[in-house]
Amino acid sequence: MKNDRPNKYLAFVNIALQMGIIIAAGVFAGIWLDGKFPNKYSAYTISLSLLGVFIALYQVFRAVKNLNEDE
Hints:
Blueprint: H1 4-36, H2 43-70
Helix pairs in contact: 1-2
């Protein structure tokens, strides 16, 4: 039983890191695209940031669902 606890904590840390990386990748890709193709509203940064958030939330949902199934 004690061996299961660190694995679950590591899983939650991994989820948080994945969220951060996915969202940051969306933001930096959007900033890069806005630099390459300038527009009035920073549309690439906004849209890729939101896409990154939705992808990250989907990943969290999937990971938590898998953690619950493993119990």
